[in-house]
Structure formats: C-alpha cells, structure tokens
Amino acid sequence: MKNRTAKIQTVTNAVKTILFVLALIVGLVLNCIPPLRPTVSATENRELNKFPSFTLQKLLSGEYFSKESDDPNNVGLSQWFSDTFPFREQLITAYGSIEGMFGIQTNKIHGEVQTGDDIPDLPSKQEPSSSQQGSSQASQDTSSLKSEDTVSEESVEPLPEAETFGGVLLSGNTAYELYNFNTGVANRYSAAISNAANRLGGSVKVYDIIAPTSVGITMPDSLKKNVNSSDQQKAINYMYGSMSDNVIKVDAFSALNKHKKEYIYFRTDHHWTQLGAYYAYEQLMLAKKSSPVSLEQYTTQQFDGFLGTFYTSTKKAPALAEYPDSVVAYKPFNNATMTVTNSKGKTFQYPIIQDTTTYPSNLKYSSTFIGSDNPYTVIVNNDLSDGSACVLVKESFGNAFAPLLIPHYQTVYVVDYRYYSGSLVELVQNNSVSDVIFLNNISATRASSLVGHLEKLINR
Amino acid sequence: MVFADLIFVFVFLTLNLICYSLAKGIRAKNIVMVVFSLLFYSWSGPVYLLLMLTIVLLNWIFALLIDKSKTKGGAKFWMIISCIVSLGALGFFKYTNFIVGNLKPLIDLSGFVPEILLPIGISFYTFQILSYVIDVYRGDVPVQRSYWRLLLYVSLFHQCIAGPIVRYSDVSREITDRRVTGAEFSQGITRFTVGLAKKALLANVCAKVADSILLTDAVASDPSLLADNISALAQKSAALLWLGVLMYMLQIYLDFSAYSDMAIGMGLMIGFHYKENFNYPYAAVSVTDFWRRWHISLSSFFRDYVYIPLGGNRRGLPRKIFNMLVVWFLTGLWHGASWNFVLWGLYFFVFLVIENIGWRDFLAKLPSVFGRVYLLIVVFFGWILFRFSQMPLVWTVVKGLFCANGNTFLDFESNTLWLNYIFFVMVAIIACTPLAKGINSVLTRRSENSAAIAVIHGVVTALIPIVLLLLSTMALAGNSYNPFIYFRF
After folding, report:
1. Of residues A250, A302, A251, A239, the one with CA closest to residue A275
2. Which residues of chain B neighbour A88 with C-beta distances below 8 Å?
3. Once rounded to an integer, what is the mean pLDDT over residues B37-47?
4. Which residues 159-198 of B are in CB contact (within 8 Å) with A?
5. Chain A residue closest in CA terms to B202
6. Closest Cβ–Cβ partner in A92, A105, A228 for B413
7. How far apart are the first and last CA of chain A?
8. φ, ψ for residue A435 (rounded to 5)?
9. Does B404 touch chain A if contact means CB atoms closer than 8 Å?
10. Residues paired with A338 in a beta bridge
11. Annotated active-site positions of B, please?
C-alpha cells in the first residue's frame, strides 16, 4: 500500500514539475516572438505601451525598468511587458468571466464613487479666479484620466483627453456614469462662458447648452434616489444662474427629461443618441426664435452592434455585450460638404455621416458623426448663400448635434476646445459669425482639466 | 520588480531556473544566484545597490574582526560598531524625514536635510545582517569568510525586499551545500503558485475594493486633502466601511503571506529551506497567539535580539512589561516611519499586557470561539490604525462603523458592493484559514487505503499549480493595478 502511494506521489511530482516548467518556458518563448505582442487594444480603445527607450539616466534612476505611467510612451520595462503580453486581450476577457463570479452583480459599480459638493441654492455672481477647490480637484481628475475616446480610423488621431471621469454603475444591461458636482470647477465654467459673451461683444449671440447625462435623465427613479450622484437639474440651474445675462441659456434638461422613455441615451456608452441631441437642438431653436426642422424630414441610417465607453469601463460586462446599442443617424438633406482639420494639421474632406456598419463595435458613435473629435471642422451648406455662420464649441456630445445645425447656417464651424489651438475670438471675427454655441455635457463641467482648456480657448 | 509581475514570472524566474540548472557545481550556482539577485535589486534603481553592497562589506569585515578578537571585550566592541553602522543606516534612510518632521515645531531642519527615498528592502536586509553579526558574536554560527557568500545570503532575491527575515543560522550550511529533491522542487512549485494566486487573484482584488472605499494611500496621506478626506469618509455608510476594513484586513494578510509563500517556494526549488513566516494568524485564539503566527520571522527577531537580552520574563512582572513595551514600540516603528505605526505596535502591547495578567488564562477556560472572535475584533480595529497615518481619519472611520458620523448603516453603494463581492469575500476568508491544508492532509491519509482517492488526489495536486499560474496570468495581464504595500517597511 505504502509503496503504491509513494509511486503515485512520484508520478504526481514529475507531472506537476513538467507542466510548470513547460508553462514557464512556453511563456518565455511566446514573449520573445514580437508579432505576438499586441500594440493596440481594441476594447480599451487605446494604444498599448511602447518599448522603453534606453538612456543611462533612466537606468540609474530605475525608471528604465520600473517606471509606471499613464503615458504609453514613457513606461518602464515591467509595465510595457504586461501591457503588451501575448494574448492579453483574450486573457482579460477570460478573467472577466471569473470576475463575474465574485458575487451577485445585477448592479455593479466600476471605478471610484466620488461624493459631489452640495449645490448652492443661490448662484455665484462674482468672478471666481482659480479657486482652491478647483485646483485640488484637478490632481484627482488627472489621476483617473484614461484615453477612452481614441479612434483608430485614418482620419483621426488618438486623443489625449477623456470624457468619463466618475464611477460607472452597471444596472441590468444599462450602465450610467455617476456625476459629482464640483463647486469650484462649476464656477470656473460659468465664469468662462460669461467671459466669452463679454469678449465677443453685443453683436454676437452666445448660447450655452449644458447637456445632462443619462444618470440624470433615463436612470429609473428607484435607482436615482439611492445612487450617490448629484442632482443635475439643480447643478445646471446653479451654473446657468451664475452666468452673465449676456449668455442665452438653453434648457436641454427639461426637454430630454420629457422624452426620457425614448432612446435618447446609449446604454453601453456615455453619449446621447442623435435623437437625444435633436431634443436639445429643438430647445436651441426655441431660444433662437427659429423653427426647428422636424424629424420627418430626415432619412435615417442605422448601425447596429455598438458597444461604447461603458463597455470598456466595466471591463467588458457580459450584460452589456448581450444587448449592444444601435447608432441611428439622421442624414443631412442639404447639399453640404465637410472639411476636417485633424490634430496633425492635415485638412481633407470627409462624409458628415459615415457608414460604420463594418467598423469595430466600439467606434460606431465616434466614427459615425462628423469624423469624430477633430480640433477644427467646417461644414458648408451649399443650399444657402446668405453668409450666415455659427461656431459650435463642443466635446464629443457635439458630434451628433453638429449635423442638425446645417439647415440653419451656410457655414457651421465646429471647434473641439480640447484640441483646437486657435483663438475663438479671432475665428468669430474673421468669419463674421453671428452665433456661438457652447455645448458641454455636464460631466465636462466638473473636470478641471477640460474647463481649463475651455478657459484657454476663450482667453486666447 | 515584484514577484506578482508577469515579467518576473515568465522572464526573470524562468531564466533564473534555467541558468541555475545549467550551472555545474555549487560555486557556479551561487554565482548565478548573486548575479540574478543584484539584477533584481537594481530593477528599481541601482543607486541603492551600492548602499547594500557597502553595508554587507562593512559587516563582513566586522564579523571577521569579531571572530579574530582574542578578548570578549574586543568582540563586543566590533559587534557594537556593527550594530551602530547597520542601525545607523536604517535610521538615516528610513527615519530621517520622520525625525525632522517631528522636530519641526522646535527647530526647522527641513532646509538642511534632503528628501530621502527609502531604499527598497532596507528594513529586511538590515535585520538579516544584524542577526548574522550578533550570532557570530554569540558563537552560534561560524563566521563567513567569503564576501560573496555573505552577499548571497543578504541579497538573495527570494527574500531580500519583502522578507521573510531569514536567519543566517538557518541557511548557513545550505549556502555551500544544498540539494534539491524532486519532491521538494514539486513542493516549491505548489508553494510558489499558491502565493502567486493569493496575490494576483485575491489580494489585488481586496486592495481595489479597499482603496475604493477607504481612499487610496496617496490621497489619504496627503495632509492638504485632510478636510476633503474626512468628509468623504464621514459620508460612507457603516456597512460600506465594514466592507472596506474587512477587505483591507484580508488584503494585508493575503498580500504579505503571498510574498512569503513565493519566497519559500522559490527557496525549495533550489534547495533553500526558509522557515514559515505565517501560520494562519487569523485563526489565532488570542493576541499572544496571533503574534506567534503573524510575521513570525519579525517577532522572533525581536524576541531573540531585544526581548530576551533585556531580561525577558525572568526579572519580574514590571520589568517584563517594560521589555514588552520596548519590543512593541520598536515593532510598530519598524513597520513605517510614522506615529500611527508606533501606536499600532503599542495598541497590541496593551492587549498583550492584559492577556499576561490573567485575561489569557480566563479565555483559555472558555470555548475557543470566544478567543477567536475577540482576536479578530482586536486585529480588525488595529488595521484601521495601520492604514491611516492621519489620526482624524482613523477616528472618522471608527465612528462611521457605528453610524456615529450621521451616516446610515446601509445605502445603495454598500448593498451593491457587498452583493458584488459576496462570493469573493467568502473565498478570501477561506483562503485565510487552514481549510485547504486540512482537506489535503485528509486526502493524503485516505490515499493510503484507496487507490481511487490516491489517483484523484494525484491528478488534482498535479494540476493545481498550472491552473493557478494560468489564472494568475489572466488576472495580471489586465491588471495594471499591482501595488506592493510593503514598500514602507
């Protein structure tokens, strides 16, 4: 008996040792085959780390081996190695299914939930310089920055600025980005828009649209009252209230809220759908005292199988993959052309609505509308010759919105304030622009770095 | 580089094992180990490598001088010089900033003293060197005449930066004479992969949840954010804080013991036998028992080199309590240059004194469950003190656990997170108990009488390491989040 047990044990030890040593050697060999190392991550929507360049100084400081960084071009060997590990994508997906077994995950919170500041009942009318709160928040914001809006399409460049900052709540097959109000940054935002109205002078009309996000609109009330997310209506009222009277404020919140049963926000992505953008557009027209184009005038195109930024931030939650979103685009009926200037300074023509049927599942919002987030885009409506022009200052919420402006202006200048390095005032003056429309989603108004870009654009 | 890093497992360790097995003879094998260890140490900056090489060199000389000394006094002189050098280096590099900070109200030296970065592993390797020199002085071990062999002992990458604190006497023979059997190599594989999985699959997840609830260390220790941090913590519901501290409690054991497991496992793969560093501490029945099971190499170090030389328990109760006070003050301080660690040490001192004057005898008469619950409660609150270097945060969390911040007991976030991690928490708790070990020994015993059980047991034991390695690789591939929390030690 003892003998047999000993024999089994010897065999066990041998098999165990062979398996383990083999696994290590296979791992080593696979890692030495450069084509097996991935360079981009499709689901995370980013470029993976680059092999660190060698300098003696980096070696001596230890950076060459062990530097950790969010900048893919500036990491140490250790981080590069695991970021570009062969079959990383498949390993992560497999690990995701293990994470699914950690508990009961009908609702799941991803990322850190930050409690917002109390929203003051009275607006602030004084000009806040860089308040303390704003700057201390800034360090936290940048720490959670991940480029998530990157697009690998030829027309567009990987982008350094992200839009989602907060925790993401997954409830059933819908995800929401939580929103925490930040008084300091909100005051800076209001001051920046007021400042724009003052600098642009009386003849130019300045409109501001703060777009709510899905957590403020479509999240069921039963969840909303429990979730640690600031009241968006109150926050928008506060920011509008704090702005100069020269700014025309557009009430997108009530309009979207009225239509909250409709498909106005994606479930797997933090953006609104173009239908959501349309309801905000109607309110803009109301404020402009123009009549909006009715939806019936448009023909639509639908691109299925969209899995957006929430799919990434929930580490590919299966609940989202099961019910992907559809991107519905309203095709402009005017004879319009669009010229894009990308972040490399290259200028070229591009379709206003691109057919993204065959595009990767994560690129369908960004690639469908106006060629994604480019610093500067000009759309010309050849049906008009009245010289009318507007500037739309936006982050990516504006992409679905911009095409809706075409029937109303001969020229629509679209500026992504995160990347545009020119001066807003000059752009307006050189092109006899009559309307400047700021369109910002509410998440951007709590992000110090984004409001910083906006301030710079206005002050240049 | 840390062990739970893909480049460590698939490049460093793999190459190390290949080179080691190709090297013929103990001398060549030792050279392989020294070269790899110095490379490992240089990973986070070779500058402090010089410091370690110098400290080893000096102490190598001091030990030789002790050995050469004709008189007891001469030996003692060199032993004291050695302690001054080693502890002086530790004190300078680890505690200067702390001392300057504390003196600030009296005199501001901050202009004269540069910010000093903590050399990695200095707390561990200094203690190893101290144990060597003192043991030579005491005549417990023969002096090591080769600098390289002493350097091998101190710098060996298995234990140099995260322990266990291996005594020279435990490995002195194996430095020049060691053999690996197939059974021990296989045992080492299991030990290593279990450690890797504890770190990659359990401790890292615990850390992520704990950080999301209790703030990350970088945020919590930033004095300029104190007011924000207090208000952030005060708003958390009680159930959420209980989860946060529980996750931290699990993390700190799983993480630390994982490193010891991996060290012991890698030692076995090349014929070194390091002593156990943890013995299921959360299954202890008293605080005294806990400290016999937690970080054993550290507590036995303080016992042998501080407590007993001070007289231990042989000079009456008051002297014994004083000796304990010294030991626990130092134990706390060793964990980090900050008052909260000192308080954490003294916190345990208080319970140990209470246990010594009768409480432990009383507990022993009760069913063991009382002792276990009492121990877990003491340790649980101890970790809050350990976590936050700023006392107001400790107090906020403690109050919050009992809804004393005006916070609710349950809220949406706490319900969600508890549900999200409920099975994970159960697995992590089981991983802290000897359950798996127990099942294994039952099966081993049963195998002797049943061929079927023997075969199944064999198959499972053969597959466990490879499965754990694969799972850990999956977890580490997507996990840029891979902190090592012992850097402050």
Report:
1. A302
2. 477-478
3. 86
4. 182-183, 185-186, 189-190, 193
5. A102
6. A228
7. 88
8. -125, 130
9. no
10. A379
11. 335
* DSSP code of residue A344: T
Q: Which of residues 217-256 of A touch B (CB under 8 A)?
A: 223, 226-228
A244 backbone dihedrals φ, ψ, rounded to 5° = -60, 155
Q: Could you tell me which residue, B12 or A105, shows the higher pLDDT?
A: B12
pLDDT for position B72: 86
Residue A24 at interface with chain B, using a CB cutoff of 8 Å: yes
Q: Tell me which residues of chain B, numbers 42 to 61, contact chain A at a CB-CB cutoff of 8 Å.
A: 42-47
| DSSP 8-state class, residue A438 | E
| Maximum CA extent, chain A | 100
C-alpha torsion B130→B134→B140→B142, nearest 10: 80
**What's the pLDDT tens digit per position in A193-224?**
999 999 997 789 999 999 999 999 999 988 88
* Token pair 């390289």: residue: B148
- Taking alpha carbons only, the member of A297, A321, A319 closest to residue A308 is A321
Residue B180, Cβ density class (10 Å: 0-12 exposed, 13-18 middle, ≥19 buried): middle
Token pair of A27 as six digits: 């791992």
Q: What is the pTM of this model?
A: 0.80
Residues of chain A with pLDDT under 70: 1-2, 42-46, 111-115, 125-166
Q: Which of B18, B43, B199, B420 to mutate to test the interface with A (most CBs of A within 10 A)?
A: B420
